[in-house]
Every structure is written in structure tokens, then in C-alpha cells.
Amino acid sequence: MEIPSAPHPELTAEQKQHISERSSGMVPGAPMSRRMLPGGSVAERVLMFEKSPSAFGLDPVAVRNMPQRKEPTLTGTAITPWRSQVQDQLNKSQIPGKKERIVPISKLESGPTPISISSQPLPVFQPPVAQTFPRRTTQPSTTFRPPSLHLPGKEEIPKFYFPNGNPTGKPSAENVCKKFGEAFSKYKNNCVTNEELGQVLKVSGYPLFWKCPVFQAAGGDKAETISLLQLSKAWRRLVNNCHDEAAQFVSILTQGARTHLVPEDMVPLIQDVVDTHPGLLFLKEATEFHSRYVHTVIARIFYEVNRSWSGKITVSELRRSKFLSTLRLLQDEDDINQVTDFFSYEHFYVIYCKFWELDKDHDLFIDREDLARHNDHALSTRMIERIFSGAVTRGSAQKEGRMSYTEFVWFLLSEEDKRHPTAIEYWFRCMDLDGDGVLSMYELEYFYEEQLQRMEQLGIETLPFDDCLCQMLDMIRPSTANQINLKDLKYCKMTPVFFDTFFNLEKYLDHEQRDPFATQRETDEEGNELSDWDRFAAEEYELLVAEEGNNEPMDDMCYEDGENPRMHVDESLDSEMIQHDPPGPQP
Ligand SMILES: [Ca+2]
Ligand SMILES: [Ca+2]
After folding, report:
1. Could you read off the pLDDT tens digit of each residue along the chain, which spans 587 residues?
2. Ligand nearest to the CA of 428
3. How far is the CA of 395 from the centre of ligand 1 (A)?
4. CB-side exposure of 414: number of CA atoms within 13 Å?
């Protein structure tokens, strides 16, 4: 692999210890012998663990007795929809008269992917059906009151919906400006610089790292300093009707123009973190990495916070997320790598190095062949096809069969932590070939077929699809027979095993080697459980740094002058964004 020369902070004693252990032969990535364990596959062992002995074997699931069905016609990557005889029979017996809807996949693949999968539809009020809930025409119960009923003379129902935050008990804009005034009195001429504004905000109870957007909103983009008058005026204009941090943050970042954030809005704030956070001082000179870091952090914020996949973070999405509390944490934590949510430099380093390995021509885009090389061809070609089909990507790059850096960040996060809700949605979208919001048997078989072929080529003992299906259904226990929906997967603790079984051979075989109940979740120093992503990033970082130490620097990771491709906030995440160069470093 090419040797990364991106700067990185000094290793901790613990990291050095790990690296020396690794270089003495205990390399976790070393090839292991591939065989099926005598105890059966991982799913079988899950099954044995979960089932009581009396129920085991006595309660055969209907799908076990599936008759042989015809093989689907699969040519290359084109998908021919088919229905198994079993499904036909099930449909006939369970839903008489109901016709199964067959959607030609080729059409759907070219069309836009429905967003409805991840967005939870609001429950629709169903009027009572006459035979089940007979209308009480004679004696209506005195206690029955529809929630929306207006009762004249009764006490008013207090307001409970505050899209801009509940003002009760919150300081008014006037009171906040008074606090600003007190803080300003320490500074000459009642004027502050960007840095000094951070202290003003901090003593006034606001997060220090709001300074850059507040400074700009108050007119500081054209001047070195802002006055108290400028700040008070801007503050009243922007946050007068916003009563909690989430609403105020959105208002400040968009200068009052919108009630949602697009990736572009975050650039000045994150660049300011690069320029002024003590944990990123070592990066000061390496300006070519500033925008890479900024865009990685923004992609991670959207991955975590933008639960609707819309490319626009709403106030309520922001309010529900941990982003604002993490941003606040940043002012008290000097080691940026301790802030593993969004900001860790080590995490950025891992993501960027992984991308650099794949992006051979270094134009900041990768194509199908590039992505196929990820993790030594662990992913199936059918899954790679789906990733590039627009199921999880949008924008102009997708039409050209390319993936941007931002999309790669989403891919890698999803690939390495398949428990994360966004990851579950990511892979669900990919596997839901016809976009009907459920994974049907033919979709599972489509992906499993390639896994089977690959295992046969490698001479590995294989499990026929029907057996695999039984195990998977027993593991996931879908609420509707023979259909797996998003909720089933989010509820199941073994979802990574499910996904890897269908499209990641490397990880599938790893799961087969491991006892799923022997691996306790690792914890950090404070006893917090490490996510799969945190564990992966920590291990990879040490491997990358060790590799760097073992090799002569060959090809550094910065782009040469004149051919440095511009990194934009990914257009695929928001079509309305304005493209411009990310701001350069402060002088
Ligand atoms: Ca490329
Ligand atoms: Ca489907």
C-alpha cells in the first residue's frame, strides 16, 4: 500500500504497546484458516442458544419444508424478478385473492429510490370499522373524549408544540445581550476578535465553538473585530424567536435564512475548529489536509444526525442528536481523539487513508472497480452494483458511475458498524431491490447466490440457500412471515451477521470462526461501550501508523500544486447547495 504521510499526533504509550505486539506477529488481519466449526455455523449456534431444548426440532418452521423451487435467471448483474413456488403457495393460502405486485427491477433501479424506507410514516388514524367497533348511538360513554375535542368553558390545553424551543424559563435575547455586555467590558473599545468572542460566549453560557458563525453573522467576515452593538443587534435578529440551542444554532449558521442546515453551512465552523482547537495544532502547516478533515467531519455529522436522509438537518433532528453536546464538549477536551463522535483526527486519518488506497488516480472519486478492491474484494459484485445504483447515493457523480469522498465516508461507516441505525438503513436500501420496503425471499436469494458461488470457488463448505434462509429467519424473527422489514433488523442484535451473510464473504467467514457469545463488547477507560466503528478505527489507526513506520516514505498523500482537485461539500447530499472552495487556513 502507498504510505500515508498525513501528519498525525504522537502515539500514546498504549498505542505503542499495541503496535509492538502486532509487529511481533500477532497481526489481527493475518489470514486465518477457513473452515466451518464443528458446532455449526454462527446462526446455528445462535439458534441453539436461544431455543429451549424441548422446542428445538419439534417446531419446524414452515419454510423448512419448502419444496424445491426453480433457480432464478440471473445474467451478469441484470436482475430478473422471480417468485418462488413457495411464495406463490404462501401468498395463495395466506392472502386469498391478493395479487403479488411484481415490480420490474431494471425500471426501479434507474428511477429514484423511494425515501419512504427510512422515514417512519405517521400512524394514520383509522376510523372504527362497524363490525368490530359498533358505534354507540344510544348511550355514549361519558368518559370517552376524542383528543381533539374542544370543551367550551373548560381549561385550555396548554401549548405543547414549540418548533423553536420552549421559552419557559429560558433567558430572553435581552438578558443574553446584557450578559454579553458584562463579558465585553473586559475588552478594549468594547470590541472583540473571533477568539475573544469564544470567551464571551463561554462565560455567557454558550458553546465556545459557536464563535466563528456568530462572528460572521455579526459582520465579522469583513472586519477583524466586532463591537458589542454589532453582536447584540445580530443576536436579537437571529435568535429572538429561538428558545433552545438547536433552534438558535440553525438560525445562526444559516443567518436566519432557513430552518434546516445543509452541509455547506457547517464549513466555517469546522474550519474554525481546525484552526483553533489545541488538539489540531500539529495540522496547522498541513493546510492541504484541512478541507479533507472538514469534509470528513461534516459527512459524519450528517450520517449521525440527518436521520431522514434528506441532506437537510432540521431543528428537531439536531435537537434529538448528540451533536450540540459534542460541540460543547470540544471546548473542555484538548485531545481531539477523545472526541470519537465526529471530530477524532485518528478516525479521519483512517477514513482518508482507506479512500486514498482505493482512489488510484486521486481525483477524489472512486468507481466500481476501485470499491471492489476495498478490504481485499470482501464485498460481492452484486452489492457493489447496488451501492452504485442510486439506492444509497444521489447526484451527478452517481449518474457517471462514481462515488464521491463523502459517499465513501457513509459507506465505510456503514460497512464497519452494521449496528448503527444509519448503517442498517443503508444496507437495507441496498438489499431491497424492488424498493417495496421489505426484504423478500427472492432478494435474499439473489445476494446469497453470489456468496455461494464464491465459497465454492474457494473450496469452502457451503450451506444451501434454504438452510441459510431458515437460520436467518430464526435469527431475525421477522414480525411478518417470510418478509424482513427495517424494524426487524433494528430490533435484532445479530444484524451484522445477517448482512455479512448476504454480501461480505470476508466478514461472514469471520463470524463463522467466532463464537458470537464469547466476544464481550469492549469498553473504554470510563466504562462506555465501544461501538464497532470505534474499535475498528482504533485498530486500523495503529496498523496504518505501524505500516508507515516500517516503510520508507514513497508517495505522500497530498496532491501536487496545480492538480489538487477541489473538494466540495458533497452535492449528492444536497442539490441546492452552493459550490465554493472550502475556506483556507487562517493566517
Ligand atoms: Ca479516482
Ligand atoms: Ca423488496
Report:
1. 444 567 777 777 777 777 777 666 554 444 444 444 445 555 555 455 555 444 444 444 443 444 444 444 433 433 333 444 444 454 445 444 444 444 443 433 444 444 444 444 444 445 444 444 444 444 444 444 444 556 677 777 777 788 888 877 777 888 899 999 999 999 988 899 999 999 999 999 999 999 999 999 998 877 889 999 999 999 999 888 898 999 999 999 999 999 999 999 999 999 999 999 999 999 999 998 999 999 999 999 999 999 999 999 999 999 999 999 999 999 999 999 999 999 999 999 999 999 999 999 999 999 999 999 999 999 999 999 999 998 998 778 788 889 999 999 999 999 999 999 999 999 999 999 999 999 999 999 999 999 999 999 999 999 999 999 999 999 999 999 989 999 999 999 999 999 999 999 999 999 888 766 555 556 666 767 789 999 999 999 999 998 877 765 444 555 544 445 555 554 433 333 333 333 223 33
2. 2
3. 17
4. 23
The DSSP code for 437 is S
Residue with cell 465526529: 342
C-alpha cell recorded at residue 260 = 434546516
**Ligand 2 centroid from CA 466, angstroms:** 18
Q: Please indicate whether the domains covering 170-251 and 355-517 agree at the CATH topology level.
A: yes
How big is the chain, counted in residues?
587
Residue 24: phi, psi to the nearest 5?
Answer: -85, 20
Cell numbers at residue 8, please? 498525525
412 closest CA partner among 379, 455, 448: 379
Phi, psi of 438 (to 5 degrees): -135, 150
Residue labelled with grid coordinates 463579558? 183
Among left, alpha and beta (phi > 0; psi -120 to 50; other), residue 58 is alpha
CATH fold of 170-251: Recoverin; domain 1 (1.10.238)
* Residue 574 alpha carbon to ligand 2 centre in Å: 26
Rounded (10°) CA dihedral 108, 114, 118, 124: -120
Strand partners, 379: 504
> In this structure, what DSSP letter does residue 216 have?
I
What one-character-per-residue DSSP string does 336-378 give? GGG-TTTT-HHHHHHHHHHHHHH-TT-SSEEEHHHHHTTTTT-
CA 435 to ligand 2 center in whole angstroms: 5
Does residue 326 come out as left (phi exceeding 0), alpha (psi in the -120 to 50 range) or beta?
A: alpha
- The model scores a pTM over 0.85: no
**Domain spans of the chain?**
170-251, 355-517
Local structure of 252: helix, strand or coil: helix
Q: Residue 544's closest CA among 374, 376, 357, 416?
A: 357
CATH number of the domain at 355-517, out of 3.40.640.10, 3.50.50.60, 1.10.238.10, 1.10.357.10? 1.10.238.10
Exposed/middle/buried for residue 405 (C-beta within 10 Å: 0-12, 13-18, 19+): buried
* 483 CA distance to ligand 2 middle (Å): 9
How far away, in angstroms, is 373 Cα from ligand 1 center? Answer: 13
Whole-number Å distance, alpha carbon 587 to ligand 1 midpoint, is 31
Is there a contact between 550 and 23 (Cβ–Cβ < 8 Å)? yes
